Amino acid sequence: MSASSALLQVRDLRVDIGERTVLQSVTLDVQPGSLVVLMGANGSGKSTLGMALAGHPNYHVVSGQALLDGKNLLELEAHERARAGLFVSFQAPPDVPGVKNNLFVRTALNAVRQARGEEPQDAFDFLASAKAAAKELGLPASMLGRPVNEGFSGGERKRNELLQLSLMQPRLAMLDEIDSGMDVDGVRAVVKLVERLRSEGTAFIIISHYLQMIESLHPDAVLRLDGGKIVEEGDMELARSIARTGFKQHAATVGAPA
Amino acid sequence: MSDVLAQRQAARAQAQQLGWPGRRSEHFRALPPPVFERWMHAELPQETASGWTVEQSAGSGVSVRTLNALDASERAVLLAHLPAPEDDRAAPFAWAHRALCTGALHLQVSASAGTAVLRLKHLAAGTVQAPALIVELQEGARLVLIEEHAWPREPDGVAQNLVAHIHLAAGAHMQHLRVVTPGAKDRVAHHVQVALQGKAHYAQALAATGCGYHLQRNTVQLTERGAESRHAALVLNADQALDYQMVGRLAAPRTRHQVETLTLASGKAKSVSNAYARIAPGADEADVFQRLTGIALQGQPHMQLRPHLEILHDAVQAVHGATWGALPEDALFYARQRGLDDASARALIVEGMARAVLARCLGDTLDDAEAPLAQWLDGPWLAEAIAAQWNREPIHG
Q: What is the distance between the alpha carbons of residues B60 and B38, in angstroms, rounded to a whole number?
């Protein structure tokens, strides 16, 4: 991959949570419209990378660099990173008590649109597009009128993340185990949405352990994260090998730390 | 001297004799009211003023009557409906009210095919006011009542001492939204007394802002089997004072009483949420729930949250708790990750929490008859009130 044309450039990123260093040194490039799958055993630092890029205050970037389309992400506030085009889906999306989904998403969407120099969407237009997106994702339209994630099942929370992704059309989306808690139809909806957004130029970093979904996504690269570093880069064969043998045995086979 | 004037003067003397509530009173220790003279002029008002306007948008079987409290016979009707001042530290307010009150509104609702929907507004002239409201629901009657208050702008503020008495006969059902937003210099004391007979259901959601002094004191008597009351209070308090007191008396089997308060305070605000429930001997399977929450938005507000249970029967359920904290950090970051700046994220979440506490009380799924409540909850009031308290632009849906 060519670093100069990369949408996301991460160099030697080191991240601490409290006293603990979770990411030792991560370097990766993601091209516009491409899809990178990030695999790794539990605790290897996959989610930490997402939260650090998103600007979570508990994830302290000690050193390194992260550029999104040439902009230094690490100098931006969390909302400025989102407005610059970074969307990070949450592994466990939280409740936002009492805030109706449609109000939340429209307010966020219009903040992002405003940052892009676009006109805000009025409630009528927004509702029409939100209903269409919800239908495509198998999310009942009634959930648009309910408080964000309150009382939602695990799968519904993930579909709600996809709804926001679909409407916001970011430049780079990092989806953290988006398939967990999803039924078969939900996983199909993920694949379909990712395909569409990729064709429109959105790049993806997908964290997943689910080989069938990874196969369907046709990734450009598969990366293995271990001990806070990217220790291996490959193609679908790497994902298949990990799925077949597990992280430990795969690492032992290739001679890299597990 | 007329009998009425003599009664009023005697009531004033009674209020003075009892001694105005102050720091020595357990109920008022945290937030003592201004002195007696701040609630009462030297001369008792001599002109009748109820100050209430009523608008009915649905239902039938509603009787609306204004009572002239300066007329001996109508005053007798009024007093017959009001319970005698209780022998407690709030009694001086009740006696002062009897001295000052010149008019009242009396609503009677009988059972009919549908739910009656009323909008009630109170606006009275004068710097000292003592409005009164009596609501009676007959057996099986249903009422949605939205009660709002406005105050005349007075340089030194207005002192308002309100008494409301609400009586629900067996099987009656009432949803009551109260919106009380006085000016910064006003002094407000509202005493709402509710009496519920068998299987009556009463829900009150209060949205109130702080002011120079603001007391919201609720007393509910659940006297017969199966009566149920739900109370929610949303307190928005920036640098002002508000004392919310809730007294629930469960005197019969299978009675249920639920109280939830959310105080959003900032700066040097002083807020008290004091919930007391008593389950009497014999109140088998009575059920009490008290949840008091205080969130400091800015500065170092003083918030006192006091859930208090007195249980005199074995087979009951009672849950109570108080939580003092900050806005949920995970929800805040989530909103910011989606592109909202910190101030907008906070405003949206504050508004959501505020709406949720009121909606839970009134019923999360409001049906067509209760549409005015849903419209109010989804309307601009919350966003504008929050914005006004904390001087920022409202976020409208």
A: 41
Query: In sequence order, what DSSP letters do the residues of A114-170 get, joined into one string?
Result: HHTTPPPPPHHHHHHHHHHHHHHHT--GGGGGSEETTT--HHHHHHHHHHHHHHH--
pLDDT band at B397 (very low <50, low <70, confident <90, very high): very low
Q: What does the pLDDT average to over B379-384?
A: 89
Contact B122, B114 (CB under 8 A): no
Helix and strand counts by DSSP (H, E) for chain A: 8, 12
Q: Please report which confidence band the pLDDT of residue B371 belongs to, taking 50, 70 and 90 as the band edges.
A: confident
Give A16→chain B minimum CA distance, Å: 18
Give ipTM to 2 decimals. Answer: 0.95
On the question of pLDDT at A258 being above 70, the answer is no
Q: Which residues contact A37 (CB under 8 A, 6 or more apart)?
A: A205, A206, A207, A208, A214, A217, A219, A221, A222, A223, A239
Domain boundaries, chain A: 1-31+50-76, 85-176, 209-258
Which residues of B fall below an 8 Å CB-CB distance to A?
328, 330-331, 333-342, 344-345, 348-349, 351-357, 359, 395, 397
Sequence-separated (6 or more) residues with CB below 8 Å from residue B180: B149, B188, B190, B206, B207, B208, B209, B214, B216
- A256 near B CB under 8 A: no
Buried (b) or exposed (e) across B243-262, using 16+ Cβ within 10 A?
bbbbbbbbbbbbbbbbbbbb
Residue type at position B376: W
Residue of B nearest to A51 (CA): B337
Residue % of chain B over a pLDDT of 90: 75
The architecture CATH gives domain A85-176: 3-Layer(aba) Sandwich (3.40)
Q: What is the pTM of this model?
A: 0.87
Q: Which pLDDT score, from 0 to 100, does residue A94 have?
A: 95
pLDDT tens figures, B238-288: 999 999 999 999 999 999 999 999 999 999 999 999 999 999 999 999 999
CB pairs under 8 A between A and B: 93
